[in-house]
Amino acid sequence: MSTLELEELRVLITALDSELLELLAKRQQYTNSVAETKIRNQIPVRDHKREEQLLIRLIKKGQEYGLDPHYVTQIFHVIIEDSVLNQQALLAERANPGSSLPLNRVAFLGDKGSYSYLATQKYFSRRAGEVLEIGCSSFAEIVEKVESNHADYAVLPIENTTSGSINEVYDLLQHTSLSIIGELTHPIKHAMLVAKETDISKISTLYAHPQVFAQCSHFLAELGNVEVKPCESTSAAMLTVNQINSDSVAAIGSEAGGSLYGLTAIKSNLANQKENHSRFIVVARNVVKVPLQVPAKTTLVMSTVQKPGALVDALLIIKNNQINMTKLESRPIAGNPWEEMFYIDVEGNVQDGPMQKALEELAATTRYFKVLGCYPNEEINATKVAAVNALAE
Questions:
Q1: Three-class SS of residue 100?
Q2: Binding residues for substrate
Q3: Facing residues of 193 across strands?
Q4: 132 and 89, same structural domain?
Q5: pTM for this prediction
Q6: Binding residues
Q7: Separation of alpha carbons 126 and 89, rounded Å
Q8: Which residue of 32, 152, 191, 260 has the fewest C-beta atoms within 10 A of its own C-beta?
């Protein structure tokens, strides 16, 4: 194949890519119209049976064109997830008139390029209005910005699949009047980033946030005699490496963030777990109403009376009301040795009957009880298609 033929093929592919984008935009417009219908008729956002039928039909159609069933499934899982999240955002916006702002002031940890920055961009890309980014140097400062009305929202990491829960954030939630209004899960892909072309053997100093060091502990152990220097955020680590501009220093952060500071990756996939994700929560001064058509989560905080079985009794209330608990986290109560505050995530909407009954019972049996927020569940589980394997044979 000549160079000319190759260029001609690339032109054709580029044209097809543009057509694909145009078709995806049209599809998104149609799904937004579907959301309007669901709002009027109180229809749930997701219909797993229809999604399964759709995927099976698309897999069969794809096979007619010689496309692998798993390839088709992966593509349409992404498309369906995007459709679901867009519909949920539209329904939530309609359920909370007046909540849309022309300018969303959002506080987060670090500066441009930090994982919190990337999560902020991802979450608010589906919301109306522009985003004013307010970088902060600590979790306490982030919360204070919203409490004092210097920001409308805060984005806070709450847990990571490798390093676990972020205790400082849980402790802040115990004492703030802010409400959780949203969540998102963001993939965390750590890379070693440098300002100058170098070899990994030359690196003598590494900069990163302490959580990042914890998530990459296996890599650090293999690296050997390298000095690790904690920074207040991944963006601060990247900025430091940019300013030092030496072939012996590196930062750990995302490649996307590093590019904003002129850094390049010399090694990727550094986390202990290759499927490394962080869950972020979005908090604001006012609660939000979550439409019943939208899958919801509710986060609770409580302390129980000091008697045997008190926690079990509280958890049985959740079980007996057929509510699924997705997380239980305990934190010590400051000034009360050996006493714990319990944070609980459950699947359910505070407007729903069983949830209301459970909340009333918990409030009556616990020593301290508070709903920290009810918000749309943005963990979109892909619809499973049992027929894929059979079709692939």
A1: coil
A2: 10, 27, 38, 47, 51, 83, 87
A3: 251, 265
A4: no
A5: 0.83
A6: 10, 27, 38, 47, 51, 83, 87
A7: 7
A8: 32
